[in-house]
Amino acid sequence: MDITVDMVTIRVVLDKKLLQATDKAARRLKRNRSALVRDALREHLRRLEALVPEEEDRQGYAQHPQPVSEWRNWEAEAAWPEK
């Protein structure tokens, strides 16, 4: 099966240290620079998307905090055990 992906060439400006680190990582992973940057960007965008519902929850709880009585009984359950 031949899958064709539309690729577009862009210009990205990197400082010298970042470019060197990128090239070093690409060599270590046996990938080319473009593939490494694409994968890194995909992962970063995935993480940003995961933050959206977390931020919505945070804002919701800030606007409508739970009464202390709802979480007080669970506080001991969430505590780290003593060593």
Number of helices: 4
What order do the SSEs take from the amino end to the carboxyl end, as H and E?
Answer: HHHH
Structural Rg: 22 Å
Main sheet properties: none
Q: What proportion of the residues is helical, as a percent range?
A: 55-70%
Please provide the count of β strands.
Answer: 0
Shape call: elongated
Spatial separation of the terminal alpha carbons: 57 Å
| Low-confidence parts | none
- Protein structure class: mainly alpha
Indicate the proportion of strand residues: under 5%
Mean pLDDT: 88
Characterization of this structure:
By secondary structure, the protein is mostly helical. It has a domain at 16-63. It is 64% helix and 0% strand. It has four helices and no strands. The radius of gyration is 22 Å and the shape is elongated. It starts with 15 loop residues before the first helix and ends in a 5-residue tail after the last helix. The model has no long low-confidence stretch (mean pLDDT 88).
List keywords for this structure.
elongated; 83 residues; mainly alpha; 64% helix
